Every structure is written in structure tokens, then in C-alpha cells.
């Protein structure tokens, strides 16, 4: 049995490794008429990581949070010239290339450098901005650090997946600390978890201008021109689309619109963000986060419970070869799901299944968490069923009840009573685990807190707020669950 189970897992892994490259090849082949497809669809989906001012960041405009910055202005101009509407999709920087290759987005405008390694996987337009790198440090350390060579035996932070992160690893003796968000890096700097943060000059200038405790110093990184420039990325083989967008990029460069219009406009939003940085001012953002957190949790609990019951019954099936096969498959599913991280499962559902079905981020998150929860609930239910005295089943059968009726009316109600604390713990866990879906752009509490941090340049206050909100949610849920547990004990 163990040997067959090992073969099954090997087959699953092989299928996953085979399907993803095939899907990427199909996308590349279908991209020959990329310009026609975008114009026919009427919408251009731009992927970006809005934590990189002044390139892209969150700002509160007329009471609502929106993504702004010079890259957004470029995206709007590209969409206008193509005659389509622009849709902006937010996600972490290191997920952008995967999203592009799997068709979740049509282009990346996120201060991305057109390095040779990236060109192997995507097509880039002409460069629209040429910049450089600085290192942001605490002002109190200004006399201590002068450039990258000053951080010997220190720690330098940089956003994962970026050229500056590679520069920190390869051109300094400092320990490299990678994080997915610039705001997380600045928080790490201010809490002295890192000694400096390497980032592009415009971003460094933006953070320093809005935080008087920070200062920027030259990095002195030895970088090629491609590593200090920014371009728009499209799926590999999108020749017609890239050629069309190049005309827009060339016109933007010829008129010097980035420095004359786009950067000054971004600067105004940066100043607006710091007018009112109180957490009460962002109550709508936190309310939205609570709303999505509850939607994900409730839906995942509901579907996870149904999946758990089916899997538990399947794992207990005995008899003919068909039932044996069902039991074997259910066992394999439970072991596989419990043996892989939920974050990987969320990314696989969103990006992997996205090769075949274009699922929204919220739907993908609910599906992934439900499938994960179902595997754990199945074990709770199976344990609960086994805890019911066999005499209960024998008594029900002696009264003429069928196997199905016995399970439904006698065994399951008693099993549910026995495992209620475990199910309650699963519900509480899901409230907190829902934060994982922020990596694919679902606007739950963690996502909203990152928005507030990007808006206000305050690192600790938003974290304190969401800690309190999570506690209120979990404490309230636990009290409700305890109430029903006491009712069941009384019955």
C-alpha cells in the first residue's frame, strides 16, 4: 500500500511539472496575435506591486484608496493608445512574472528592470525610465554608513526578486535580507532588523522626503544599464503588441513626460498621504479588510466541512474494489494536502489552474483554503466517528435503519458533538490563515494594512490595529462556539 501511495504522489508531481510548461508554451504560441486579442477584449490588465513610490503606490483620493504613481500614468497612456480600458491588478512583486506567464495579467509596469535573465521568459518594450540605486538608512547612522562597502558584517535589505537584491548578495559582504514589500523593509529598518535598504533612487527619495528619521546614501553598486532602467513586460512572443506599445514609450521619452508630468504628479499624491496619517482616517480600509476576511472564512468553513465529511466517509469505505479505490484516493488527497504549505496551494490554484480557467483572486483563495481545510476536517470527523461506541450502530441497525440512516441520524450527530472543540479551533485558525491570500491580491486585513502602511509611511500603527481586529474576530468567534458547545453538552 505504501509503495502504491508513493507512486501516486510521484505521478501527481510529474503531472504538475509537465502541465505548467505546456500551459506557458500554449500562451506563447497564442500571443502571435497579441495586439488583436487585447483590442478585441477591450481591456488591458496591468500587474503592479503598489509599494514602490513614486513608481506605484497607494493613495487616498476623495476618501477612497487607489493605486497611483508614474507607472500608472504610463499604463493609462498605453491603454489609451491601444483604444482599450486599463484594469490594474495588485500583487507582490515576485508574483508578477508568474501572473504574466499564466495569463492573469497582460503586462507588467512595476519599475521592472529588463535584465537578460528576465528577457528569456518575457518580452520587454523600450526603456521608459533610467534610474539608479540608493541605500536608505536611519539618520542616526549617517556617520557610520557611506556606501555599500560600509555594511561589512551588517544586514542590507532589498525587495525579493529585484536586481538590487541580487546586487546586495553579490556585491557586498553584508547579509542580504529579502522581503516582498518595500514598506516591510522600511519597518525592518526603523526597528533595526536591517541596517539599510537598497532601492531605486526615486523610491529612496520618496521615503526620505516623507520620513524625517531616514536618509539616503549612494549605493555605488556596479550595475549594467539594463539593471538600472525600467521597461514594460509582456508575455513571450507578443511581438505585435510590443511593437505597438513601443511607439507610446518612444513618444513618452521624446516629450520627457516622466520627469515633466508623471513624477511631479506622483509627488503631489505622496504629500497628500502624509496630511492625515491617523488610523481612524483609514477605517474604511480596515472595514473592507474585515469584510473580505469574514467572507473567505465563512465560505471556506462551509465548503471545507462538506469536503471533510465526504473525505471522512470515503476514507472509511470498505468492501468491493471500487470502495477500496475511493478510500485510497481519499487517503492520498488528505496526506498530500496536509503535507504541502497552504501558501503553495493558494498560488497553485490561482496561477496553476489559471492556465485553464481564469479564476478571480477571491474565488481562488476560497477554493484553496476550502480544499486545505477539508483535509483537516476529514481527520477530525473520522476521529469523531470512531469515538462513537459501536453499540450505537448495532442498536440502530437492529431497529431496521440502513447504513446511511444510521450514519446520518445516529453516528454523525454524536461525532459532531465530540469533535466540536476541534472544529471550533479550525474555524479560529481559518480566520487567521485567510491572511495568506493577500499574496494573490485579495483585499483582506493584511492586504489593507499594507495599503495603509504604504499610504502613511507608518510601519507599526497599522500592525497594532490589525492585531486588535484579529483578536476581536477570534475572541468573538470563540465565545459563540463555546455557547453552542455548552448547548450540546446540556442536550
UniProtKB/TrEMBL annotation:
Question: ABC transmembrane type-1 domain: from which residue to which, for each copy?
Answer: 290-481
- UniProt cross-references to PROSITE patterns, sorted A to Z: ABC_TM1
> What are the transmembrane regions?
292-314, 348-371, 460-481
Cleaved signal peptide residues:
1-30
Q: A single GO CC term, please?
A: ATP-binding cassette (ABC) transporter complex
Its annotated compartments are: Cell membrane
Q: Name one GO molecular function term.
A: transmembrane transporter activity
Pfam families associated with the record: BPD_transp_1 (PF00528), SBP_bac_3 (PF00497)
Q: Which GO terms describe its biological process?
A: amino acid transport
Q: Which domain of life is it from?
A: Bacteria
What PANTHER family does this protein map onto?
GLUTAMINE TRANSPORT SYSTEM PERMEASE PROTEIN GLNP, MEMBRANE COMPONENT OF AMINO ACID ABC TRANSPORTER
Protein name (record): ABC transporter permease subunit
To which species is this protein native? Lactiplantibacillus argentoratensis
Amino acid at each position: 500500500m505504501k509503495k502504491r501511495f508513493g507512486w501516486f504522489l510521484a505521478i501527481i508531481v510529474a503531472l504538475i511539472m509537465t502541465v505548467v510548461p505546456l500551459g506557458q508554451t500554449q500562451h506563447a504560441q497564442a500571443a502571435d496575435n497579441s495586439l488583436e486579442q487585447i483590442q478585441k477584449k477591450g481591456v488591458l490588465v496591468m500587474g503592479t506591486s503598489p509599494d514602490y513610490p513614486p513608481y506605484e503606490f497607494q493613495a487616498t483620493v476623495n476618501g477612497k484608496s487607489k493605486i497611483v504613481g508614474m507607472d500608472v500614468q504610463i499604463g493609462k497612456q498605453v491603454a489609451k493608445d491601444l483604444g482599450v480600458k486599463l484594469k490594474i491588478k495588485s500583487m507582490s512583486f515576485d508574483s508578477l512574472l508568474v501572473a504574466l506567464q499564466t495569463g492573469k495579467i497582460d503586462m507588467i509596469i512595476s519599475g521592472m528592470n529588463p535584465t537578460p535573465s528576465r528577457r528569456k521568459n518575457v518580452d520587454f518594450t523600450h526603456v521608459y525610465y533610467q534610474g539608479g540605486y540608493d541605500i536608505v538608512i536611519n539618520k542616526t547612522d549617517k556617520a557610520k554608513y557611506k556606501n555599500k562597502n560600509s555594511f561589512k558584517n551588517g544586514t542590507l535589505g532589498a525587495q525579493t526578486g529585484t536586481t538590487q537584491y541580487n546586487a546586495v548578495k553579490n556585491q557586498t559582504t553584508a547579509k542580504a535580507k529579502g522581503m516582498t514589500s518595500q514598506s516591510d523593509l522600511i519597518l525592518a529598518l526603523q526597528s533595526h532588523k536591517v541596517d539599510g535598504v537598497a532601492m531605486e533612487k526615486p523610491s529612496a527619495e520618496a521615503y526620505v522626503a516623507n520620513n524625517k528619521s531616514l536618509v539616503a546614501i549612494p549605493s555605488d553598486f556596479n550595475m549594467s544599464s539594463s539593471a538600472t532602467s525600467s521597461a514594460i513586460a509582456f508575455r513571450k512572443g507578443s511581438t505585435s503588441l510590443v511593437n505597438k506599445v513601443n511607439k507610446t514609450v518612444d513618444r513618452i521619452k521624446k516629450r520627457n513626460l516622466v520627469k515633466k508630468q508623471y513624477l511631479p504628479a506622483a509627488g503631489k499624491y505622496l504629500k497628500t498621504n502624509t496630511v492625515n496619517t491617523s488610523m481612524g482616517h483609514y477605517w474604511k480600509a480596515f472595514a473592507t479588510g474585515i469584510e473580505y476576511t469574514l467572507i473567505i472564512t465563512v465560505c471556506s468553513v462551509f465548503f471545507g466541512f462538506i469536503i471533510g465529511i465526504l473525505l471522512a466517509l470515503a476514507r472509511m469505505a470498505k468492501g468491493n474494489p471500487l470502495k477500496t479505490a475511493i478510500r485510497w484516493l481519499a487517503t492520498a488527497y488528505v496526506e498530500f494536502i496536509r503535507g504541502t504549505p497552504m501558501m503553495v496551494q493558494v498560488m497553485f490554484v490561482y496561477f496553476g489552474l489559471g492556465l485553464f480557467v481564469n479564476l478571480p483572486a477571491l474565488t481562488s483563495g476560497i477554493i484553496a483554503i476550502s480544499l486545505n481545510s477539508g483535509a483537516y476536517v476529514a481527520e477530525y470527523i473520522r476521529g469523531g466517528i470512531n469515538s462513537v461506541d459501536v453499540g450505537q450502530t448495532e442498536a440502530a441497525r437492529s431497529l431496521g435503519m440502513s447504513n446511511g440512516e444510521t450514519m446520518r441520524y445516529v453516528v454523525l450527530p454524536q461525532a459532531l458533538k465530540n469533535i466540536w472543540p476541534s472544529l471550533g479551533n479550525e474555524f479560529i485558525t481559518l480566520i487567521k490563515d485567510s491572511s495568506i491570500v493577500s499574496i494573490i491580491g485579495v483585499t483582506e486585513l493584511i492586504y489593507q494594512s499594507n495599503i495603509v502602511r504604504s499610504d502613511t509611511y507608518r510601519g507599526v500603527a497599522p500592525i497594532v490595529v490589525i492585531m486588535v481586529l484579529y483578536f476581536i474576530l477570534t475572541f468573538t468567534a470563540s465565545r459563540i462556539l463555546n455557547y453552542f458547545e455548552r448547548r450540546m453538552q446540556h442536550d
